[in-house]
Amino acid sequence: xxxxxxxxxxxxxxxNLITAFLYLFIYRYIHTSFLVPVWGYFGYxxxxxxxxxxxxxxxxxxxxxxxxxxxxxxxxFISVMIYALVYLPTVITIQYHFTDYLSVIGYQFAYMxxxxxxxxxxxxxxxxxxxxxxxxxxxxxxxxxxxxxxFVLFHYGPGALKLVSFEEVYDLRNENYELKGNSxxxxxxxxxxxxVFLPLYMAIGLVYRKRSFIIIAxxxxxxxxxxIGAKTTxxxxxxACGIFLCLxxxxxxxxxxxxVVAFLGVMIWYEIAKVMGCxxxxxxxxxxxxxxxxxxxxxxxxxxxYIDFFRTAEHTYYSHIGIVNYITGAYPxxxxxxxxxxxxxxxxxxxxxxxxxxxxxxxxxxVAAAGIYGVIFISIVFFFFLKYLNxxxxxxxxxxxxxxxxxxxxALLNVSLFxxxxxxxxxxxxxxxxxxxxxxx
Length: 441
Fold this sequence. Notes:
It contains 19 helices and 2 strands. By secondary structure, the chain is mainly α. It folds into 2 domains: about 5-130 and about 255-395, no CATH class; about 135-250 and about 395-440, no CATH class. A two-stranded antiparallel ribbon has the order 1-2. Helix 5 (about 140-160) packs across helix 8 and helix 7 (about 185-205) packs antiparallel against helix 8.
């Protein structure tokens, strides 16, 4: 007899529909019981709301999951991560953030259309690229990664590379910026190591059981962290191992429930620690901050903040992309980065003291670029990127593909799609899938 949890509802199954329903209430609890009380000074709000607003928001949050087919392809892996870490938190946070709900409901519908489109990519991805010749050998990629790591190692040297706590990473970044400057190519090399080559080594090490590759990936993570204090990079090997174990022993069908249970576990751990009066310890607080605020809650906060800011501010109309601004000169914030300019103006900080609140691609290339129309436009563009990704990755081991794509997912959660494509090396990964063959027994 077919399992109840495998019964199809729309394009998804009961397991993922029930998980989405539970996740809705789990995230609402995280928002009201953790994000607002602990991080409220950042801008998390719990404004008065009506039954109508909650009901409409819940329907919008749940509806796209009906289009999630659970098919084990690259687009679904990225899309379900976007649903869990960007879409649902943003849709719910908007409802809590604004007292004038009707003025932002259009954004919720735009996000819903975008999410449905992402989940439908696999329906239009039936062909795969058959490359009979191995144009770029695997050794080319492996040696390139090591070469870049050695170059970065010698560039910074022992004087600049420091292993610091999470609280000290911003001091490390400022010190190394003053010591080494802002070298154009070094910036690319560091990002490519963390977003492309580290996941590549982890993928080979985990999927094809090559322990030496995992060691090299861990060393790369340490190098990037000691150079620029990238917190997501230092934790990347741990996330890669967790996702690989989920894919191997639980299966992709239950990947979304695995994500939700992981966040629920951290929240329960924090609540138990709070009852015991030890939630501020050096272990519990940084982990809960990294996973519940920095990984999960930040997308909703920045989405709501950017929407609020650009209701009156001038949109960028994609002039935040370097080449577009070079041609048009239309970027409205001078020489300041988009995240820093928006956050300083929105929060009333001095530009020099403000953090760079860089946001996910739906915010940067959507909300900031052209409002609701920008969200729709960038969603269509991303749809075709996902469609091509499915095509070129179809001939590779899916688990291998998913681990490599972790760097891309991390970038999409934090920066523009175009920054992800070039600066974070998404184009390199597309080239690898298209022109290289991974041959291990």
